[in-house]
Design a protein that fits this description.
Elements: H1 11-14, H2 19-35, H3 48-63, E1 64-66, E2 72-74
Antiparallel strand pairs: 1-2
Helix pairs in contact: 2-3
Length: about 80
């Protein structure tokens, strides 16, 4: 279930990431959704959706870091 716009993202993503972080998340999720469509391409027993969310968070963590209160800020 790819996300067409940031407003379609899960609340946990929208509530914690700034707009740019949401863009990164959405683009990475959608890319992983296409890439990992076959179960043998995924690690362990992860579902396609679990894999795509993991990839998306990994992409966000390259640019942003999590603050103690749950919000994410851009790395310096």
């Amino acid at each position: 279930m790819p996300y067409h716009q940031n407003s379609d993202l899960p609340d946990s993503v929208k509530d914690s990431l700034p707009e740019h972080g949401q863009d990164i998340y959405r683009e990475a999720f959608n890319s992983a959704w296409k890439q990992y469509d076959e179960p043998e391409e995924r690690k362990g027993n992860r579902s396609r959706e679990e894999t795509a969310h993991a990839v998306a968070w990994s992409a966000v963590k390259k640019v942003y870091k999590r603050r103690e209160i749950g919000k994410w800020i851009k790395k310096e």
